[in-house]
């Protein structure tokens, strides 16, 4: 099995000192930086866009894992690539041209991800599997941090791992992830874990490290 990846969501960081938060959570053991982009249209909240991501880029060498909760998404893909995102994940529900969006991300030289809301079946991605480097399984309805984990995500991960039929695709889970849920998700076949509130509680480097180690099961 692949090593577990912990991807703190800076949605839960202190926005007044985001650069410092990114450096601190990097040192605390984050593997990827999960960047939640929300447009107030696809999801009922607004966060930040490519200019903020670009400003954060010099603060860490870790992978920038962008989760775009925006519609339309195609007009903005190049801006996120230029801002320094390494993974660009779009929602299967965000528009009628998922296949085109994934092709566009690969054409920009970035890893292509697709995310599924809790109510969306796996069949939505059946015909794009060869265009995908990562599947982001939502275990909350996207829009806000700090929500309760939806347990049906565990079955979805297991069915997705089977559906991938050995393809080297990351399965990342996002929403309400904590030390209590990682074991079952990893056993089902997930290898990457987004955590916002569970990482950033405590507000210090020592607490972030303890939180990340706990989620990793160490
Ligand atoms: C939800 C976002 C998540 C969120 C996770 O719309 O996609 O990445 O920040 O936060 P927690 O871990 O607090 O549920
Ligand atoms: Zn996210």
From TrEMBL:
UniProt entry tagged with the keyword Manganese: no
Functional summary from the UniProt entry: Catalyzes the reversible epimerization of D-ribulose 5-phosphate to D-xylulose 5-phosphate.
PROSITE patterns on file: RIBUL_P_3_EPIMER_1 (PS01085), RIBUL_P_3_EPIMER_2 (PS01086)
Swiss-Prot/TrEMBL catalytic activity: D-ribulose 5-phosphate = D-xylulose 5-phosphate
EC number(s) stated in the UniProt entry for this protein: 5.1.3.1
Organism annotation: Tardiphaga alba
Chain positions recorded as substrate binding sites: 9, 67, 143-146, 174-176, 196-197
Keyword rRNA-binding in record: no
Family named by the database record: Belongs to the ribulose-phosphate 3-epimerase family.
Listed PANTHER family: RIBULOSE-5-PHOSPHATE-3-EPIMERASE (PTHR11749)
Residues of the active site: 36 (proton acceptor), 174 (proton donor)
Residue positions binding a divalent metal cation: 34, 36, 67, 174
Protein name in UniProt: Ribulose-phosphate 3-epimerase
Gene3D superfamilies registered for this protein in UniProt: Aldolase class I (3.20.20.70)
């Amino acid at each position: 099995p692949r090593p577990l990846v912990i991807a703190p969501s800076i949605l839960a960081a202190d926005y007044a000192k985001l650069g410092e938060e990114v450096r601190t959570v990097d040192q605390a053991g984050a593997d990827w930086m999960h960047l939640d982009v929300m447009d107030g249209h696809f999801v009922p909240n607004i966060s930040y866009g490519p200019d903020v991501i670009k400003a954060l880029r010099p603060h860490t060498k870790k992978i920038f894992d962008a989760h775009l909760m925006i519609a339309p998404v195609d007009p903005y893909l190049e801006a996120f690539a230029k801002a320094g995102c390494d993974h660009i994940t779009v929602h299967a529900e965000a528009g009628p041209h998922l296949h085109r969006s994934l092709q566009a991300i690969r054409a920009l030289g970035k890893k292509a991800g697709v995310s599924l809301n809790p109510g969306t079946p796996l069949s939505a991605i059946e015909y794009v599997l060869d265009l995908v480097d990562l599947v982001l399984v939502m275990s909350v309805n996207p829009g806000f941090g700090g929500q309760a984990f939806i347990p049906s995500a565990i079955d979805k991960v297991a069915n997705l791992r089977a559906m991938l039929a050995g393809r080297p695709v990351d399965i990342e889970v996002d929403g309400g992830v904590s030390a209590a849920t990682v074991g079952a998700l990893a056993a089902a076949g997930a290898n990457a874990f987004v955590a916002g509130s569970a990482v950033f509680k405590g507000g210090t480097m020592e607490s972030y490290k303890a939180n990340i180690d706990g989620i990793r099961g160490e």
